[in-house]
Amino acid sequence: LLENCKTNDLTSRNTVFLFLGPAISEISEDPRKWWTEAQEQLRDSLSQKINTNKAKNVILFIGDGMGVSTVTAARILKGQLRNRSGEESILEFEKFPYVALSKTYVTDRQVSDSAATATAILSGIKTKWQHIGVDGTNGSEDCSVDARIETILDWSQTEGKSTGIVTNSRITHATPAALYAHVPNRNWESDTSLPNSTKCRDIAYQLIHENNDIQVLFGGGRSKFLPDTEADIEKGGSTQKYHRRDGLNLIHNWETIIQKRGGRYKFLCNNTDFDTLDPNNVDYVLGLFESNHMQYELERDRGPSGEPSLEQMTKKAIQILQRNNNGFFLLVEGGRIDHAHHDSKAKKALYETLALDEAIKTAVELTKEEETLIVVTADHSHVFNIAGYPNRGNDILGIVDPPKKWYPMDNKPYTTLLYANGPGWSEVRQDPRTVDTTDDNYIQISAVPLSQETHGGEDVAIYARGPMSHLFHGVKEQHYIAHVMAYASCVGANQNHCKGITNSSYKITNTKFNLFGLFIMFLYKTLIH
C-alpha cells in the first residue's frame, strides 16, 4: 500500500516545492503552507518504523509540574526567543514519535503531590499522598520491609546496569527520592525532620547507606548530608541549624564506603569541580551543588564557584553511565519548573522547561535510538492557563490584545498567562500595564488567594522514542510508565519476551503481522492491475 502511495504527486517533496515557488511568510493565510506542512507530517507518520529491540538504556525525564499548558507556553517562548511568532515552534521532545496521556490521581487524592506520582512512575504501583516508595496500606510511620516497594532502580541494578540521578532540586526531594527511598512522609529528608516516635531512617541516610550502588548523583541539598557541627562548604550556604543533629557527615560516609569498595570516586560542589571531572576516570560521583535547591536557570551562576546546568549534568551523567556494556537507567528531573509555578512566576517556569528541553536534546544526540528508550513526562500539572484570544505572535509573557467583545469589564487588560490560585491575587486587580510583565520575578494574577499556587489534576503527556516506545499510546494510568520501561529493558517482571531480542537494529517481531501485511499488499496490487 505504501509503495503505491509514493507515486502520488501530493507526497512528492520535489513537486510540492515546485508548486510553492517563493517562500511563504511564517504568519500566513495562504492555504498552501498548511497543506504542505500537513503532507510532510503525513509522510513522516507513514514512514515510522516500530522499534521492538531490547532497550539497553533507559532515560526518564520528569518535568516536575510540566503540564500541557506549560509545554505549549514554553514552545511559544522558544520560538519567540528566536524572533519568530512562536506558535509554530517545536520542543525537542515533541519530535518524539509516540505520545500518550497519563492519569495522575493517586489512591487517596484526585490531585496529587510529587511523592506519590513519582512513586507510581518509578515503581509501577499507585500509593498515597506524600508517600515515597511505600504502598498505601500501611501506617503513617511504617518503613518496614513489608511496606517497601521496589523500583526500576532495583530492577536495573539486579540486571547489572548502571544507574544515576540528575536533578536541579534537592537530591532528597520527592521525585528523585522516589527512585531509592522508602518513607511514608516526603518531608523526612534528614533526621531533623523525623518524629521521635518513628523507627524510619531519613531519606539522605537511605541514599548513602542503602543505595550507594548508584553511580551518578547530581543535584542540590547539601544541608541534608552535613552535621550541625560543621558550616556549609559554600559561603552563603545553609547555616548549621539546618544541618543534621545525629552528628553524621554523610558525604564523608559516602567517600569511605566507595573507597573500601575500591572504586574511583569524586565529590563535587561547584563548576570548577564539575568541569575538571573526567567521565572516563571515575566510577562513582556525588555532586551536591547547593545547600538547598539548585539555582533557577535565569539566575544560575556560571562562574567557577557556580553550578552546572541541567543539560551539562545530563551530558556528563550519560558519558559516565554508558561505559557499562550492560546499559544504564538514568532519571533526570527538571524540578524547578514546579517551584516557579508554586510562586506563580511563569517566566521562570517556562525557562526551566526550556532548560529541560536542552537536556533532552543532548540525551538524543549522545545515544542511539535503536538501543535507548527515552521517556519524557510530568508527574502532575499546575493550575496554569493560556487565555484571552491574543493575536498570533503576541508576547507569551505579555498582555492580551483581545477583540472588544472580550475586553475585561473593569477596563483593565490582563496577561496571557494566568493562575487559578496563588499569591498573585489582590482585592483590587492590578493593571498589568503599570508593571513589566516580562520581568523574571513578575507574579501572574491568580483568581483565588493562596500563599502558594497548587497542582492541577488534569492528565499530563508522555513522549517516547526508542525501543518499545510504541507502547505509549492512548490514555494510560500513570503507573503504567514503569511497566513499559521495565518491559522494554528486560528488567523486573515480564522477561519471557526477552529471549532472542537484540538491540542492534529496527525490526518488527510479529511474524503473523508481517505475513498478513505482505498478503494485503499482494491482494491490493492484484486488484489494481
Q: Could you characterize what this model shows?
A:
This protein is of the alpha/beta class and 529 residues long. Helix content is 29%, strand content 14%. The protein contains 15 helices and 15 strands. α10 (271-275) links the parallel β5 and β6. The radius of gyration is 25 Å and the shape is globular. Mean pLDDT is 90; it is low at 1-24 and 505-515.
Tell me briefly what this model is.
The protein is of the alpha/beta class and 529 residues long.
Uncertain runs are: 1-24, 505-515
Mean pLDDT, all residues: 90
Helix-residue proportion:
25-40%
Order of helices and strands: HHHEHEHHEHHEHEHEHEHHEEEEEEEEHH
Indicate the proportion of strand residues. 5-15%
Largest sheet: 10 strands, mixed
Quickly give the structural class. Answer: alpha/beta
Number of helices: 15
Number of strands: 15
How far from one another are the termini? 13 Å
Rough shape? globular
